[in-house]
Amino acid sequence: MMEGENGVEKKQRVDSGESGKKAAALFSDEEVGDINGLTVGDDYVEVTCGCTSHRYGDAVGKLRVFSSGELGIVCECIPGCQEDKMTPAAFEKHSGRETARKWKNNIWVIVNGEKVPVAKTALLKYYIQSSKHANGSNKSNTPKVCHRDEFIRCTVCKKHRRIRLRTPEECRSFHDALANTNWKCSDMPHDKVTCEDEEERGSRRVYRGCLRAPTCRGCTSCVCFGCQVCRFPDCPCQSCIDFTTNVKPPSTTT
């Protein structure tokens, strides 16, 4: 048994070394090297995080930071917790923190064995840049389009299922789902869901992933009327045809 555990530890060290090479594109070793639970992917960094409630104690999770500025937390407050891919504000509320709406100070990561507010680390630098961009402080550039999560209703069990819109593939899945008059839970593109699974509760459903506010009902950051991420040249629907036609450069004659 001990030999197997040593093998796991060795593999983790190798993976950490490979991840360290990828991390250079997002954060330097000085910025994140001392943060506990560091895992690095191709376009994100994941660390252990938490939020403390005086009544319920520590709620622990995994904070994933993307270069786009998007933040997501998978909650591990109790074994089997179903809350995943939460916004920081939603995680703060879910933890039972008494002084909510200050997630940058209330959510902490562990640096050299001590809890440090995420606001005092470099982990929010892409989030801050993205927020400034969305608020118009960098108007000279084309703003980054944000697509809110959307819901679709199963024609069999009548439950609403969340579909995330972060990538062209996810946008296409939602786009095709809307056109499918017989869409079912089993058609979920990226998550295995059946009609027997519980529906996302109403209080959680209001969180849609807007860059400005998690409970936003629609703003210039999260409402898109057509872009190259959510419109498709090979789709025969009128919305995609109109967009594809309009974005084509006008022909010139000589």
Verbal overview:
It holds the Pfam family zf_ULT1. The protein has 254 residues and is of the alpha+beta class. It has 2 domains: 39-128, Roll (SAND domain), CATH 3.10.390; 150-246, no CATH class. The protein is built from 8 helices and 8 strands. Strands 1, 2, 3, 4, 5 and 6 form a 6-stranded antiparallel β-sheet that branches. The longest helix has 22 residues, at 2-23. The protein starts with a helix and ends in a 7-residue tail after the last helix. Mean pLDDT is 77; it is low at 1-24, 137-143 and 249-254.
> What's the story with the biggest beta sheet?
6 strands, antiparallel
Unreliable stretches (pLDDT < 50, length at least 5) are 1-24, 137-143, 249-254
**How many E-type strands?**
8
Overall body shape: globular
Tell me the distance between the termini: 77 Å
Helicity, in percent?
A: 25-40%
Order of helices and strands: HHEEEEHHEEHEEHHH
Biased composition (Basic and acidic residues): 7-20
Protein name: SAND domain-containing protein
Domain SAND: 30-134
Region (Disordered): 1-20
